[in-house]
Amino acid sequence: MAKVTVYNMEGAEVDTMELSDAIFGVEVNDHLVHQAVVQHLANRRQGTQKAKTRSEVSGGGRKPWRQKGTGHARQGSIRAPQWKGGGVVFAPVPRDYSQKMNKKEKRLAIKSVLTEKLAENNFIVLDDLKFDEIKTKKMEAVLKNLNIDNALFIVGEDSENVVLSARNLADVETISPAGINVYDMLRYGTLVATKSSVAAIEEVYA
Predict the structure, then answer these.
(1) Which of 21, 71, 103, 167 could cysteine-pair with 25, CB 3.0–4.6 Å?
(2) Domain coordinates in residue numbering, the chain
(3) How many whole angstroms separate alpha carbon 75 and alpha carbon 54?
(4) Whole-angstrom distance, CA of residue 35 vs CA of residue 48
(5) Which residues of 98-108 are buried (b: 16+ CB within 10 A; e: fewer)?
(6) For the segment 100-151, what is each residue's pLDDT rounded down to a tens digit?
(7) 8 A C-beta contact, residue 7 and residue 13
């Protein structure tokens, strides 16, 4: 089992912690990591684009002029695509872009990223992270003490002040242990988790 140093909010070493090899010591599967990112981005697409085809545009129910003898090219409707105000050829329609991924594959992708972050020394464990008030400067102080400027904080459900203190920082995001995903973990350089969050992750993904 891998051992990591536990820090406090001042950046001082206060303890060590053993991490489960079943979560932080798996064989990294780059293919599943890529698949998880593609799925995450696809599932975020709204798919609400819409334009009208020639059958949906109002008007144009009769031929604008007779077929022959006018000198014009023959036309069947003023709502044909070549007319101003006509329908769109192969118009986009609402669709579902979401993709599916097996639970075991998704779990292995998350474990792969956690393992990689730990191997690259980009996984920091805090003994606790709580603020008695909402203050962005306090979060900035924690970042400075830990010598990081781009991080994803994995915090518990009772950390509302921490979440609100971090939301104005461009390169900082907070997430719950149950909400961790491959895309967000890869977006940020460093993962910072409290001891309780690590325990929650190991319980969910064991």
Answers:
(1) 21
(2) 2-45+99-205, 47-96
(3) 13
(4) 24
(5) eeeeeeebbbb
(6) 999 999 999 999 999 999 999 999 999 999 999 999 999 999 999 999 989 9
(7) yes
Q: Rounded to an integer, what distance in angstroms lies between the CA atom of residue 137 and that of residue 58? A: 58
CATH architecture of 2-45+99-205: 3-Layer(aba) Sandwich (3.40)
Residue 2: predicted pLDDT: 84
Locate 115 and state its tokens: 């393992």
Tokens of 172: 């900082």
Which residue is listed with tokens 């409707």? Answer: 77
Three-state SS string over the chain comes to CEEEEEECCCCCEEEEEEECHHHHCCCCCHHHHHHHHHHHHHHHCCCCCCCCCCCCCCCCCCCCCCCCCCCCCCCCCCCCCCCCCCCCCCCCCCCCCCCCCCHHHHHHHHHHHHHHHHHCCCEEEECCCCCCCCCHHHHHHHHHHHCCCCEEEECCCCCHHHHHHHCCCCCEEEECHHHCCHHHHHHCCEEEEEHHHHHHHHHHHC
CB 185 within 8 A of CB 205: no
Per-residue b or e along 8-30, where b marks 16 or more CB atoms closer than 10 Å to that residue's CB = bbebeeeeeeebbeebbebeebe
